[in-house]
Design goal:
The complex is a heterodimer of chains A (about 900) and B (about 260). Among the domains of chain A are: about 130 residues, SH2 domain (SHC Adaptor Protein, 2-Layer Sandwich); about 100 residues; about 150 residues, Up-down Bundle (Glutathione S-transferase Yfyf (Class Pi), Chain A, domain 2); about 90 residues, Ubiquitin-like (UB roll), CATH 3.10.20. With about 900 residues, chain A is of the alpha+beta class. Chain A contains 40 helices and eleven strands. Chain B has a domain of about 170 residues: Rossmann fold (3-Layer(aba) Sandwich), CATH 3.40.50.300. Chain B has seven helices and eleven strands. Classes of the chains: A alpha+beta (about 900), B alpha/beta (about 260).
């Protein structure tokens, strides 16, 4: 009890501190604040651990404890406690479901965006006070929280508008904002803040013991409210203490601890930096939400899990199904590494738990969420133990490669080292680079820089220790994450970073180490955006989903059918159209679970979907597209023309090209070349454009060369032409085309679009550099392009359907002796099996087509398809079934001994192909 | 939060007439440090509040030299407006301007709003192009014309303000609540919607010939004020005076896309 009182006191101190900071804008005080918060949190955690131990041992049964003690499965959990060591507040997560888990699993029940006000009132009418729904109000054009009130409030229910800013969700009138809707609701289940009382979960949800039970409830959806499953507790607790002993989670203990805190208005450092006065404030809540609720229940089994077994058995229905974990697994189960990981992610707990940690290493197989590899590396190096990472593991090469991919982007920036240098030893180069990075990179938003200023979760790449979203943290995600960094890393726009961050975020080492203390806290935020992008790209690899099927079929169709496009523009435009349409599909479909609206503020949804499209469509296609582009340009002679003309233009002096401003010298041209080379490695057109902007920025800097004169297009375009010629990179042509056609059309009007146009123009000038007569020819050519662009924009706007792209059918061809091969065919919905058979005979080069037929293999059985059936319709029907079915269309001999086929092999071939 | 409307504006004109100076002046006067600057002066943005909206100008500068002429279509595609600049001290630049107008009419986006800016009006003692010529020409093509001085910040704001309402006149828009009254037809009392436009009177007059307000409910008839307005005769002396036009209607107002005059 004493410790609790103490913790309350310290929290109050903390609160006064943070309140005070609203007006703080001096760096010194700011760091002091961080330090204070860090130490407070450290203390808090220590206390929590202590209280917990005492709880488990039953040493000090106090009032508060007894109040929240659970009748159910406490005993079973206590066993776990003994076998699993605890190293920190974070890692001692139990299998008990947190409020957040419960909310996540049951969102089909309470998240009813399409419900009208009347319907919501009807549902809530029969519910006890505190029960809530989230719906979208057509009146306000906003999401609202509909809350059932008790009779003394007059009205039966009240609505609270949910405010969505670019990165956060908050209740109107409240200063506390959250990364997503689930966290918001979870918080208000614990603290009332601006509400009349805390939210309450329906009895069935709050008492469910397993995720499976929750899933079962969730299946009911809106029907839950009228079903017997929604049985109420015998005596509904009074509304002001909805989370008392007989219901849910250990939340009431959180109440004790959090009560002192919930009125705190904490700012994230970046908000402090901006020193805006009216924005919503961020509150570091996951720490409290999670740790407290978990600790109390005492269990230590991790709910979410890097172990696929537990994953599979515990939640048979939880979406989405995982692909098998890749080899990188081994990295994270290595005990030595897991120790580092723990410490890296929880630096502030190291002190209290050091001995325990070290002592328990041997008996602690529990996998720990791995931090970002880079972070790991830098940490290791700091500890002088870098050698552990260089041991050979299957994944190392891959990582190095990825790291290299990423490296030049850092190095290529002004003042950075050329990539060759960085490539030498990737594990070593990384931390060194992050330390010596010039101020310009201060805005690079890496945790290795500890620039926690960037609250907007984008920056918080250090996202591994986010166990809150149990099922999505899985073994292969770390590789994933790493890849992301190589391309999808948040690149600040070239100019902002320089101007803004420079001033406030060049951190001395000392400060960095202090900030590092906070990293554990901040790591609990994983950017919802990244989470979403990752989830979508996982979904895209899952052929059991309609979306996955669509994407995979399209990708393989493109790769296999090189002859299907007449020109490079045609190819790129089809891909762009496909991305746009899939985006439309995704934003409307229910395959994303939980729905994207609950995780991403509305004005950001398109941005996030676009990123996801780049990742799941452009990434696998990049190599193919590049090769194809090159082929096209070789074939039509433009490659050769450009090559010859580049030579010609390079021999001219700047004045002959119309340049009357200072031009970049050799060193600058080298720098620009490096940036262009980095650009070639990116798959995301957005990232490529970002690099192009950096190149242009550098050109401007050179041109202005302290003269202060502003140069418009009259001067800039000639210089750009000159620079592009000097770089002498033929690949730029395809790069520009790639960007121009694949960039989100909405961005073509912006700065990126402008410089892309200028680069395209410069290249056209070079290509047509046959003195003056070329002008006419070019003119008609550019007009053609113009017409095509216009067409593209209008088509994108008018057809938001995936119709064109669902017309792919993957057919396997099975021969008794030669195994199985697969091909993706273009099959329209009304094409009969007969026609498909003909097509197959052609494609698979079958000599005796009458001997073959199309079969459907589903649920372990074979069905020969009648000639007049429509395979696409069958496929659609199979997809529309509630349970996902694994099925294959197989083209094979009719008179086949059914037992003579080893279809397991065949199936594997299929899924792998 | 106010809605942001993006508005692509393309700058055309001979080299040396001061295209980028005009933009720099427009963008950098009353410079708002919260708005992220662009990397260079060839492409600049400026956000201006306008009614209950924010208008974000995305200004695309083009290279004026003859050799880059052929690239212009790529720059003006998708533009809502084109600002064509000439130098009042150079007759040649006025000829080039006419070429641009012709090209835009032939190949430019439909409904592109054209504004003519006679720059360097601070040097009117060495003027070669009389203001009268420019006005007559502008009238003949239905464009706005102003003489500006980027150096002395004369008429720069006005130039860009002038194109804003015109641009939105020529694109479909609606105002007021989207759903008037309740869904069932019984409710006769509907919310009034008003549309206020700050615009150049002469320009309104010209548009008035072919603009039609559309009311989605035919029983409501045309908006009352519109009738008054359209019956009014306009005098030449009002032309080019800024005015605010307030249109009231029962029910929502929709502005039909103007059909090209016969």
């Amino acid at each position: 009890m004493e410790s609790q009182a103490c913790s309350r006191a310290s929290l109050e101190e903390l609160s006064s501190w943070t309140m005070g900071t609203c007006s703080l804008d001096k760096q010194g005080s700011f760091f002091k604040l961080i330090d204070t918060i860090a130490s407070e949190i450290g203390e808090l955690k220590q206390e929590m651990v202590q209280t917990d131990v005492s709880l488990e041992n039953g040493l000090e049964p106090t009032e508060a404890h007894s109040m929240v003690r659970h009748k159910d499965d406490d005993c079973s959990k206590e066993k776990d406690v003994k076998t699993c060591p605890r190293d920190s507040g974070y890692d001692s997560l139990s299998s008990r479901l947190s409020i957040l888990d419960r909310l996540l699993h049951t969102h089909p029940i309470w998240l009813q965006l399409s419900l009208s006000e009347e319907e919501a009132a009807e549902v809530l009418q029969s519910q006890p006070p505190g029960i809530f729904l989230v719906r979208k109000s057509s009146k306000m054009q906003k999401k609202v929280l509909s809350l059932r009130l008790s009779c003394e409030f007059g009205a039966p229910l009240k609505e609270f508008a949910i405010k969505e800013s670019t990165y956060t969700f908050s209740l109107e009138g409240s200063g506390i904002s959250f990364a997503d809707l689930f966290r918001l609701i979870a918080f208000y289940c614990i603290s009332r803040d601006v509400l009349p009382f805390t939210l309450k979960l329906p009895y069935a949800i709050s008492t469910a013991k397993t995720e499976a039970q929750l899933e079962e409830l969730a299946q009911l959806g809106l029907n839950f409210w009228s079903s017997p499953a929604d049985n109420k507790p015998p005596n509904p607790p009074p509304p002001h203490r909805p989370l008392s002993s007989d219901c849910v989670c250990p939340a009431s203990r959180q109440l004790c601890l959090i009560n002192g805190v919930h009125s705190i208005k904490t700012r994230t450092p970046s908000e402090l930096e901006c020193s805006q006065t009216n924005g919503a404030l961020c509150f570091i809540n996951p720490l409290f939400l999670k740790v407290h609720s978990q600790d109390l229940s005492g269990g230590l089994k991790r709910p979410c899990t890097r172990t696929p077994n537990a994953n599979g058995t515990e939640r048979p229905r939880s979406p989405p199904p995982r692909p098998p974990p890749p080899a990188i697994n081994s990295l994270h189960t290595s005990p030595q590494l897991s120790r580092t990981e723990t410490r890296a992610s929880m630096p502030e707990t190291v002190n209290h738990n050091k001995h325990e940690n070290v002592a328990l290493l041997g008996i602690k197989p529990t996998p720990i969420p791995p931090p970002r590899l880079k972070k790991q590396a830098s940490f290791l190096q700091a500890e002088g133990g870098a050698k552990t990472l260089t041991s050979s593991r299957p994944c190392r090469d891959q990582e190095c490669q990825l790291e290299q991919e990423q490296e030049p982007s850092t190095a290529g920036s002004p003042g950075g080292a050329p990539p060759a240098e960085a490539r030498g030893d990737c594990t070593r180069a990384q931390p060194a680079c992050s330390e010596s990075r010039p101020p310009w990179h201060g805005g690079r938003q890496r945790l290795s820089d500890m620039s926690i200023s960037t609250s907007s979760s984008d920056s918080l790449e250090f996202d591994r220790s986010m166990p809150l979203f149990g099922y999505e943290v899985d073994t292969n995600s770390s590789l994933e994450d790493y890849e992301e960094e190589s391309d999808q890393e948040t690149m600040p726009p070239p100019i902002k970073s320089k101007k803004k961050r420079n001033s406030s975020f060049v951190l001395p080492k000392l400060v960095k180490s202090q900030l590092r203390k906070m990293s554990g806290v901040f790591s609990s935020f994983m950017t919802p955006e990244k989470r979403m992008v990752r989830r979508i790209s996982e979904l895209s690899r899952d052929k059991c989903t309609y979306f996955g099927c669509l994407v995979q079929d399209y990708v393989s169709f493109l790769q296999e059918n090189k002859e299907c496009h007449v020109s490079s523009t045609d190819m790129l435009q089809t891909i762009r159209q496909f991305m746009t349409q899939v985006k439309n599909y995704l934003s409307q479909s229910s395959e994303l679970d939980p729905p994207i609206e609950s995780l991403i503020p509305e004005d950001q949804i398109d941005v996030v979907l676009e990123k996801a499209m780049h990742k799941c469509i452009l990434k696998p296609l990049k190599g193919h597209v590049e090769a194809m582009l090159k082929d096209f340009h070789m074939a039509d002679g433009s490659w050769k023309q450009l090559k010859e003309n580049l030579q010609l233009v390079r021999q001219r002096n700047p004045q002959e090209l119309g340049v009357f401003a200072p031009t970049p010298d050799l060193v600058d041209v080298e720098k620009i070349k490096v940036k262009f080379m980095t650009m070639q490695k990116m798959y995301s057109p957005e990232k490529k454009v970002m690099l192009l902007l950096r190149v242009c920025k550098l050109i401007y800097t050179v041109m202005e060369s302290n003269s202060g004169r502003m140069y418009g297009a009259d001067d800039f375009l000639p210089v750009l032409t000159y620079v592009i010629a000097q770089c002498d990179m033929l690949e730029l042509d395809t790069e520009i085309e790639y960007m121009m056609e694949l960039l989100d059309p909405s961005q073509l009007h912006g700065e990126g679009g402008y410089y892309l146009t200028s680069a395209y123009g410069a290249l056209s000038l070079i290509k047509n550099f046959q003195e003056e007569q070329a002008a006419r020819l070019l003119s008609s050519e550019t007009r053609d392009t113009l017409r095509q662009w216009h067409k593209r924009r209008t088509t994108n706007r008018t057809i938001p359907s995936v119709d064109d792209f669902q017309n792919y059918l993957r057919v396997a061809f099975q021969e008794v002796n030669s195994g199985c091969t697969g091909k993706t065919l273009f099959v329209r919905p009304y094409v009969t099996t007969e026609d498909v058979c003909q097509l197959c005979a052609e494609k698979f080069k079958v000599g005796d087509p009458e001997e073959y037929s199309l079969f459907l293999f589903v649920d372990e059985t074979w069905q020969q398809l009648a000639e007049d059936t429509y395979p696409q319709k069958i496929k659609a029907e199979l997809h529309s079934r509630p349970q996902p079915h694994i099925f294959h269309f197989v083209y094979k001999r009719i008179k086949n001994d059914p037992y003579g086929i080893i279809f397991q092999n065949g199936e594997e071939d299929l899924t792998n192909s | 939060m106010m809605a942001i409307r993006e508005l692509k504006v393309c700058l055309l004109g001979d080299t040396g007439v001061g295209k980028s100076s005009i933009v720099c002046r427009f963008v950098q006067d009353h410079f708002d440090h919260n708005i992220s600057p662009t990397i260079g002066a060839s492409f600049m943005t400026k956000t201006v509040p306008c009614g209950n909206e924010l208008h974000k100008f995305l200004i695309w500068d083009t290279a004026g030299q003859e050799r880059f002429h052929s690239l212009a279509p790529m720059y003006y595609r998708g533009s809502a407006a084109a600002v064509i600049v000439y130098d009042i001290t150079k007759q040649d630049s006025f000829h080039t301007l006419k070429k641009w107008v012709k090209e835009l009419k032939e190949h430019g986006p439909e409904n592109i709003v054209m504004a003519i800016a006679g720059n360097k009006c601070d040097l009117s003692d060495i003027r070669e192009v009389p203001l009268k010529d420019a006005k007559e020409y502008a009238e003949s093509i239905g464009a706005i014309v102003v003489e500006t001085s980027a150096k002395n910040a004369i008429n720069i704001e006005e130039l860009f303000q002038g194109i804003t309402p015109c641009v939105f006149w020529s694109s479909p828009l609606h105002s007021g609540p989207q759903k008037a009254g309740s869904a069932d037809g019984s409710a006769r009392r509907r919310k009034r919607s008003t549309l206020s436009l700050k615009c150049n009177l002469r320009f309104l007059h010209e548009l008035g010939d072919f603009l039609r307000f559309m009311s989605p409910d035919p029983t409501l008839g045309p908006p009352r004020k519109w009738k008054q307005w359209s019956n009014q005769t306009w005098e030449a002396k009002h032309a080019n005076q800024p005015a605010v036009l307030l249109i009231e209607a029962h029910g929502p107002l929709y502005l039909k896309k103007p059909e090209p005059p016969p």
